[in-house]
Amino acid sequence: MTLRLSLPSLGVLCLALAVPANASQPMSGSYGPLALVVGDDGSVHGVFAERQIGNGTPEAPQFDCLFLLVGHVEGDRADVVTWFPGKAERIGGELHLGAEPSLRLAENHGGCLMTTGDMKGAPYDLLLDERREDWIGAGLVAAERAILHPSPTNAPGRSRPYLVRFDPVAVLAQRPGWIHVEYLEATDRPVTGWLREADVVLSAAARP
Fold first, then answer.
1. Under a CB-based contact definition with an 8 Å cutoff, are residues 45 and 33 in contact?
2. Residue 123 located in a structural domain
3. Handedness of CA 88, 208, 71, 112 (dihedral sign)
4. pLDDT in tens, 16-75
5. Does residue 6 lie within any of the structural domains?
6. pTM (global) more than 0.85
7. CATH code for the domain of 194
């Protein structure tokens, strides 16, 4: 038997193949300075990090806009709560992850007006730069100096790279007492390693 498609049917088929089935679904990934994780249960959590060097250095920027984010998505939007580690203040907002992703907050976090700009007066436009299904969490380094280990162990070794306080990271895996992270501000090549769990503040608990 020979299967034939009329031209209208063929056009509908081509259109269906051209649009991914999950194109309208919120996705985990890098939205400019926002690293976002969308869970299967609708939870959303992430870290926003943008720095302004100015008269400072990459190690000690003049201004920075840093905060953690958590919420729950319904459709393509989520009511979120944001905060900076160590501060009691919580700032609410609204995250949109549809065709034109954006973030709007009730108040601006300190430093954001000098880097990212106003998130209170108008929604801050987000752009999905890279989809990352392997991210399971996000956070900020809490330790003054956090050694990146090649494996989840405290075994002594040669000189190792390290991250410093408030460096943003995405979580790739978790073991008891340890977190496998990817440094989010690496420029030349990906920087990954294992950090002690106590050295990181997560926006939400990562899964095993």
1. no
2. yes
3. positive
4. 334 344 445 789 999 999 999 999 999 999 999 998 766 655 555 578 899 999 999 999
5. no
6. no
7. 2.30.30
Residue 85 CB-density burial (10 A; 0-12 exposed, 13-18 middle, 19+ buried): middle
Residue 150 in any domain: the answer is yes
Burial class (CB in 10 A: 0-12, 13-18, 19+), 58: exposed
Rounded Cα gap, residues 33 and 3, in angstroms: 50
Contact 59, 164 (CB under 8 A): yes
Phi, psi of 17 (to 5 degrees): -70, -30
**94 and 149 housed in the same domain:** no
Domains identified in the chain, total number: 2
Strand pairing partners for 74? 77
Amino acid at 18: A
The strand pairing partners of 162, in sequence order, are 147
Quote the tokens at residue 34. Answer: 């926002």
> Domain range for residue 73?
29-131
Residues 123 and 178 in one domain: no
CA 122 – CA 124 distance, rounded (Å): 6
The tokens describing 176, both together, are: 């008891």
Is 21 inside a domain boundary? no
